[in-house]
Amino acid sequence: MPSALVLPPRLALAQRPTPLQFLPRATQRWGNGRRLWVKRDDLTGSLLSGNKVRKLEFIIAHALAEGYDTLITCGGVQSNHCRATAFAGAQAGLKVHLILRGERPAAGQGNYLLNQLAGATIDCYPPSRYTPELTSLLSSWQAHYAQRGRKALVIPTGGSDGLGVWGYIAACDELREDLSAAGIEAAHLVTATGSGGTQAGLTLGTALYDLPLTVWGVNVCDNEQYFLLKVARDVADWRARFPGQPEVEVTPRVIDGYVGDGYGIASRQVLQTITDLAALEGVLLDPVYTGKAFHGLLQELAAGRFEESSDVVFLHSGGVFGVFPYAEQFDFRTPLQAANSERS
Ligand SMILES: Cc1ncc(COP(=O)(O)O)c(C=O)c1O
Q1: One pLDDT digit (tens) per residue for the chain, 344 residues
Q2: DSSP, res 218
Q3: Is any atom of ligand 1 closer than 6 Å to the C-beta of 197?
Q4: Does an H or E element contain 238, and which?
Q5: DSSP string spanning 309-334?
Q6: Which of 38, 39, 40, 52 for a ligand 1 pocket mutation test, highest count of atoms within 8 Å of Cβ?
Q7: What is the value of pTM for the model shown?
């Protein structure tokens, strides 16, 4: 660890370290000369799973230290971040209020159902209202709690800000050990990017820990320019909130071109990649984030993007509950699935 890097208080919520797993059959099938690995952050927990838990370890520690009794956060109806916050808040004894984008589902499903089970207060707003009014909705709910003598912390979308980035800065210490245990000298590290905080933390963390990793975010919404700016903004927020940390140069890198028809819309090819990887390696991706990003990674591998390095690591950032709302869109008669059934 660089001597001057000082981590803020952290609440132990995630199962750490997560494994760095080699994918032998995926390597053979798609590696194009590179070895494929997956950093299993889908295994940070069951309900508290995925990348969000690493951020929440720092965010909730801050909330407890500063005397907040309520967490307000926001996202899509099937947001993984909101579900992780609902459970982390319940574990810490904090009230959780979720501001969700979309119509209230008629029946609980996936993450929405889990939010209900965790006892979160939920308000749904149609996108026509949510998108332009999000900032004022969050502050008016915060004021609502203040009027009742409560102290509510507003956590931004995805927990991505100068505080949340600590989650993946700290994860870089773990990655350092992973690389050395696996004998990886240099690698590309690819993650899905949706609100930018995971990518910002990894980009910053690899610089702070001087890791031989080139970090790429595959955007699942917006575009390259948006994420270059968002990562820079989260890093600037981190510097402002935590002065005195080592000065390092941060170079965000985005692989654009895999959003497809929009956020949360998975193409037939993305869904097939999900079923293929599940059948080939027993690793399950989701249609909104990891499936799209891994599909992008495979296209880029085939096109020779990562040629200068022998290893490529995919950060599996979770999202398993996001699979269920897509149940009817999967086609199980893919060539790989067929080969598997013939095996039996
Ligand atoms: C499963 C999953 N992977 C990746 C991401 C993207 O992470 P970030 O919001 O930090 O960019 C998210 C959330 O947005 C997510 O839920």
Answers
A1: 445 799 999 999 999 999 999 999 999 999 999 999 999 999 999 999 999 999 999 999 999 999 999 999 999 999 999 999 999 999 999 999 999 999 998 888 899 999 999 999 999 999 999 999 999 999 999 999 999 999 999 999 999 999 999 999 999 999 999 999 999 999 999 999 999 999 999 999 999 999 999 999 999 999 999 999 999 999 999 999 999 999 999 999 999 999 999 999 999 999 999 999 999 999 999 999 999 999 999 999 999 999 888 999 999 999 999 999 999 999 887 777 777 777 66
A2: E
A3: yes
A4: helix 224-241
A5: -SEEEEEE---GGGSGGGGGG-----
A6: 52
A7: 0.96
> In a 3-state reduction of DSSP, which class is residue 89?
helix
CA of 191 to the centre of ligand 1 (A): 9
Q: Which of 49, 79, 160, 317 is catalytic?
A: 79
Strand, coil or helix: what is 102? Answer: coil
Return the closest-CA partner of residue 301 out of 290, 313, 289, 291.
Answer: 313
Which residue segments constitute the domains of the chain, with CATH numbers given? 20-49+163-339 (3.40.50.1100), 52-159 (3.40.50.1100)
Active site residue 139: no
Ligand 1 within 6 A of 80 CB? yes
Atom 16 (ligand 1) nearest CA: 80
